[in-house]
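#structure-requests
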Amino acid sequence: MRSLKKQLMLVSSLCSLLLLTGCSYITDFAVINESDQPVEVRYKIKNYPGSFSPPVTPATIAASQLSTKGNQQWNKLAPDRFQLDQDNRTVVVRVMPHEALLVANMHDYSGHEDTWAAKEFPIEQITVKGSRGEISFTNDDARRSFSEVSRALYSLTYK
């Protein structure tokens, strides 16, 4: 009887653990270059305690390979493919035509109306400059400039 009780407790604990871990997800924030020319993406990170580092290592993927389901296989950029400005907390990346750039991700992002997400979003300013001009967003507009594709992907598209 005790053995059965222990087994039931173990199964119950494992089920609870699986339920808790199954509800968590990651939302990627990507800049997509839909133009036929390279663009420069420049984004400024909020001032957090400690030494400066980007929220994620800049990474790219062909825009046609983006998945709305999450668990995207991003290709992390080598350090010579992006610039870090420690003093201004800025990352600069050249994004090729029809390529997507990962600039941030957040756990359990529930949309633009979430006040927690507004505080935790790591990007303070983002600018995309290309042959058709420049788009730039600051403060909460930087976060809201990304459109929801799915709960796992928000994108800012330069055309």
